[in-house]
Each structure stands twice: as C-alpha cells, then as structure tokens.
Amino acid sequence: PEQLQCRTVCGQGAVRCVRFNADGNYCLTGGADKSLKLWNPAKSLLLRSYLGHGQEVLAVACACDNANLASGGEDKMVAYWDTASGTAVRKYRSHLARVGALDFSPDATLLASGSVDCTVRLWDLRSKAQAPVQLLTDARDSVTAVAVHSWRIYTASLDGRLRCYDARKGAVAEGLWFEICFVKKYICAIWCTCRPHKDRCSFLRQSGS
Fold this sequence. Notes:
Layout: E1 15-20, E2 27-31, E3 35-40, E4 45-51, E5 57-62, E6 68-73, E7 78-82, E8 88-92, E9 99-104, E10 110-115, E11 120-124, E12 134-136, E13 143-149, E14 152-157, E15 162-166, E16 171-174, E17 179-183, E18 186-191, E19 200-205
Antiparallel strand pairs: 1-2, 2-3, 3-4, 5-6, 6-7, 7-8, 9-10, 10-11, 11-12, 13-14, 14-15, 15-16, 17-18, 18-19
WD repeats: 15-40, 50-91, 92-133
Pfam family, one: WD40
Keywords: Cytoplasm, Repeat, WD repeat
C-alpha cells in the first residue's frame, strides 16, 4: 500500500509548484510568499531559499547538472539562478502575463518558458541577452506545460493541443493532450480537457528507446 514518506512544512504560504531534480535527491518548491526553496526531501531539510520575485512563484525547474535553477511567477518574470550561491544570474521580463511552465534542455543551454500570454519563449542561457532567441505563438490559450527533450520542444495549452516543435526544422505537429512531463525515456501526456475522452493517459515512446 502507498504510504506517506515524509511531510515538510515549507513556510511559504500556499505551495504553488514542486519539482524534483534529475536524480530525485532534491526538490524545489515555489510559494505564495514569492520564494523558491531547495530541499532534501528525505530529511525535510531546507538547503537554500531564493528571493527575487515580486509575486507568487508558479513554476520551477532544475538543470540536469544541478548547477542552475529557474523560476517563473505571477510577476511575469523568469529568473535564472545559480544554485550554490543563491544569486539570480539573469531575470527575463519579456512575458506579458504570469509564467506557469518551465523546462531546461538536457544540456542546460536553453530554457523554455510558457505563459498565460499564450506564448512559449526560448532563452539562450549562454548569452546575456534579455530577449528570447525564439518566440512560439501557435497556442490559442494559456500555455500550461513545456518540456524540452533532445531537439524536440513540447508545449501544452488550454486550447486542448499538445504541440511538438522540431527545433532543427521549425516544424510543428499537433495533438490533443493537456499536460506533459518526462519520465526517463518516455513522455507522459495526460489529457484532461473538456472533450469526449477526458482523463486519458498516453505514453509516447522516444525514438531509439
């Protein structure tokens, strides 16, 4: 039977988002108190707090090498953090509405952010430029999830579609799922829109796996 492993009082007011790092040893929480916190969940141990948002933190992400974190919030800002020092390396303020979805590329050189402004913006983390390197505007409603895997960029929107962008060709293929996340070499896509077959879970197999 499933059992509660641990319980942590985060001290952030409402906890708006939570996400594990790549190996599952650490997790991030974003709160209504405008903070991002890094935890050792097995010990309920707070490792560091990151402050810099003006409103609630709604999305968090961790680079695969654990060297950097990202957060997005109600303040429309995307923050790129140095994990060890707690310093905000860059703050991107291009979105026109709250940011609720983030993901790093596997090599941690690209960050994708999705927003209620119906866009996905891609940030080159090797550059100090404040403008996104690419703007994806195909969504017709709020972008609820983003995932970057190899040369593919997946976005999910309240318009009922999952879009897969080929970063090499600029092509887009559309599906009908609501929210997505990666589980090892698979993509888990959960469809929960107001359509005939809601609450469907589909797994898309990665090529070569």
